[in-house]
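queue> pop job 88
queue> type: inverse folding (structure -> sequence)
queue> payload:
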């Protein structure tokens, strides 16, 4: 199950520079390096609960393109049914010390009215065919000549773990490497034990869903896997669930943690993309 922190955080300022198109069956935000450098590969963002149109997600896609040299896709894996953004304000009031009890009750039920439809429609097993279908088409087309990475956050982290099981199309895995920031809705430890592809984890010290103890258990499993399936895990001190995407940029420490996680993903994909070989 997801946790309340999946719906908390800050909405970032900025104007995404990519375009919206239809790619591999889904409406998709797409962006390439601004300087026109040759592509190192393709990175697909599987978003948190607020979906592909969330400005934070699109600004992160721009960073991956410009700092990593990737072509970045952020598809609408939720088919237009993300969690509504008003839930961020609801959660602020619910957790506020100043708000009155009746205000908190009102906003609790208001938030539940957004969360329950989102979870029902986007339960991992229901969303997986949409995700899998996109990556199958991608691998058969652009992904035949370029490496593919999947970066998933909160809700999207579960889908990265499912991709990491090693499902194939035409005998090739759907992705070459995965990255996940503070994933939710995992089945521990079976999801981690079933990984057959390399996945990098960015975890928060203060995460009500995945404690440091659970994170260390994940680390022990992924770092003990044989190459090429060996993963990695970094715990970001003082960070909370959602920090990779919804960190409050008014606080320098939060901004630095988010930037470090972005760098972690870029380095991971770059290292694994360098081993890519086209099929003969």
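queue> result:
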């Amino acid at each position: 199950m997801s946790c309340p922190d999946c719906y908390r955080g800050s909405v970032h300022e900025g104007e995404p520079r990519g375009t919206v198109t239809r790619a591999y069956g889904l409406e998709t935000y797409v962006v390439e390096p601004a300087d026109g450098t040759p592509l190192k590969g393709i990175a697909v963002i599987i978003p948190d609960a607020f979906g592909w149109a969330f400005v934070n997600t699109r600004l992160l896609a721009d960073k991956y393109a410009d700092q990593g040299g990737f072509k970045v896709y952020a598809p609408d894996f939720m088919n237009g049914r993300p969690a509504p953004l008003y839930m961020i304000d609801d959660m602020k009031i619910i957790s506020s010390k100043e708000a009155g009890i009746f205000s908190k009750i009102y906003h609790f039920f208001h938030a539940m009215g957004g969360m329950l439809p989102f979870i029902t429609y986007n339960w991992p097993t229901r969303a997986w065919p949409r995700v899998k279908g996109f990556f199958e088409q991608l691998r058969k087309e652009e992904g035949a000549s370029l490496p593919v990475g999947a970066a998933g956050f909160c809700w999207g982290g579960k889908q990265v773990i499912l991709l990491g099981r090693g499902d194939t199309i035409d005998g090739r895995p759907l992705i070459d490497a995965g990255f996940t920031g503070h994933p939710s809705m995992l089945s521990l430890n079976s999801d981690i034990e079933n990984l057959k592809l390399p996945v990098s984890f960015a975890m928060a010290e203060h995460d009500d869903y995945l404690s440091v103890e659970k994170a260390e258990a994940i680390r022990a499993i992924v770092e003990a896997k044989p190459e090429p399936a060996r993963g990695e895990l970094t715990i970001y001190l003082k960070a909370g669930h959602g920090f990779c995407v919804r960190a409050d940029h008014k606080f320098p420490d939060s901004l630095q943690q988010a930037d470090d996680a972005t760098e972690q993903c870029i380095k991971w994909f770059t290292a694994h993309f360098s081993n890519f070989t086209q099929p003969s």
